[in-house]
Amino acid sequence: MHHTLQNQANFFRLSSLLLGSKRLSLIVCFGFIFFVSPVLASDSHSGQDSSGSESEFNPVTTILHHVLDNHDWHLFDLPGHDGHDHPVSIPLPIILYSEGQFDLFMSSAFEHGHAQVNKGDRVYALDEHGHILDLAGHSVLDFSITKNVASMLVAVLLLLLIFMSGAKSYEGVHGRPVGIAKVVEPLVLFVRDDIAIPNIGHNYKRYMPYLLTAFFFIWINNLLGLIPSGANFTGNISVTATLAVFTLLITNFSGTKTYWGHIFTPHVPLWLYPIMIPVEMVGIVAKPIALMIRLFANITAGHIIILSLVSLIFVFKSLLIAPVSLVFVLFISCIELLVAALQAYVFTLLSALFIGLALEEPHLEAHH
Is 54 helix (H, G, I), strand (E, B) or coil? Predict the structure, then answer.
């Protein structure tokens, strides 16, 4: 309990450092509002059907469009002279494997789902969910660089620049952090002193590379997702599942005899073994599933809430609702800045806790 309270106190001190001044947080949040509002507004007046009459704004379609993955990086829509909106986006590479060969082209060839791409006897098209299909009936394996993959590559590039430049600063004459290293070093020490050591113990050094990678990778991607038109990378269930699988593998491959003894020979009467052993086996899988769902649900919920609040303006079509909606968006946006760091902290803390439980020694068991 003491370690838990100390960790929470240290984390909230770290959070205040990450958020910086209140003025900076307000600038970021207001910038987020004024960037998101035009995007939703451009989607809202795409409400003209083929007959030229105005159709009702559908917030569900708009929100899903911003939350789900795409084959291009949509930025905004521009109203055209023909009365229709024209999307402005960054095309991304399409890499498909079908009938024993690869087909490479840019996503702009689909013209946002309005065109087909012919590659010999293969005809590719986008379905209503954004998946690529071969209209000729061939099976297709999609290795494309989607919006989430592109966002991940940007995050990896940022992490390399931050840590390589930070490490280079220690090569100077004084051997002390300068520049970006002054920001990175307290975070590294926080992960080591308040997450790894209290939960893992004296063997913490073996697991520091993974814990640091998980913390900074999740945190940077969470922040990138808050940028207008950013990708909902850590709100993708496959991404959080992959991170959870890494924790699962590291935990179980590090397990001691005591750890596996608790699972296959629990301290209960023998007649309860048929019940307790399956329960313990389920617990092995349940812990990473909890990691996966917690990160996915919290990040996705934040995006959906912000976009839903802004959508209220276009649903009610009244400026009277705009001030109330934007105040709530400002409040949630400020909270999301904290949640971005909080979820990285929780994932790293629980991963360290699970690893520490797997490293339990017999004398600790006797002490308890």
Answer: strand
